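Journal club side-thread
Mid-discussion, someone asked how the predicted structure for our own chain would compare to the paper's figures. Pasting it here so we can look after the session.
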Amino acid sequence: MLIRQISNFKLEAGCDEAGRGCLAGPVVAAAVILKEDFSNPLLNDSKKLTEKHRLLLKDEIENEAFAWAIGIVEPIKIDEINILNASFLAMHKALKKLKPQPKFIAIDGNRFNPYGKTPFECVIKGDGKVQNIAAASVLAKTYRDEIMQKLHLKYPEYGWDKNKGYPTKKHREAIKKIGTTPFHRMSFTLLPNQLKLQL
């Protein structure tokens, strides 16, 4: 059973991101402040849910949460500042859009760049422990999947409708055969033997 939140602040935002380990596409973060009476037995780490359940939860979170927002950082920026900093930036973008602003932030993971002077706590595997982080993980994952579905229509050879930009065999074979797109992260190891990649 997930705990509701980790602080005594009424306006505690949960924050999580999706797409850190991908070879292509943006990193997407979400920040969510849940109402005190929010409850859904399905709510969990988005990776443990079926797509159907994620989409059901997405609608409920958007309709029932006290506040929620999405932050996106594109591949060109990921290459410029590295994926860890890009993840923090995406979280900051999401937090900045929250109205009202949170008084405390619960972050999934073990590291975070402070957001102004707002107190925060990192929770390892928080998306499977705390409701507001789990809600953020669901929104981040569903929004990113939607982006990758749209990009798949433009670049169907890479199988992004299925792999969502992660380094699957099909994705890497397409990179080897066709090359890269403007949505690939050029600072990542796109192929196990980078010398094979014609840049």
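Post-session note: Residues 195-199 have pLDDT under 50 and may be disordered.
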